[in-house]
Amino acid sequence: MILEIITPEASLFKGEVKSVSLPGLDGVFQVLDNHAPIISSLKNGELVFVSNQPIEANEHLVVSGNAVHVQIKGGVAELNNQKLIVLAE
Fold it and tell me: Which of 7, 10, 42, 50 has the highest CB neighbour number within 10 Å of its CB?
């Protein structure tokens, strides 16, 4: 699936991923390939994704093995047609 992480300041990531864990209002949940469409509010926490390609760490992306960690302050996630868009603060 395609993941796109967007903040008011910049686009942090766009690419193919295997899985994404998101900090939902009711707890952390995971999205995998072929997941049903979903819209969810997000709270302060850590978004973690496993990429299909090598990722370089930067001030927003912390790479640990094949997992990439991103701290967010909240936002909204929408998954539709194998594309997950995260509008994060």
Answer: 42
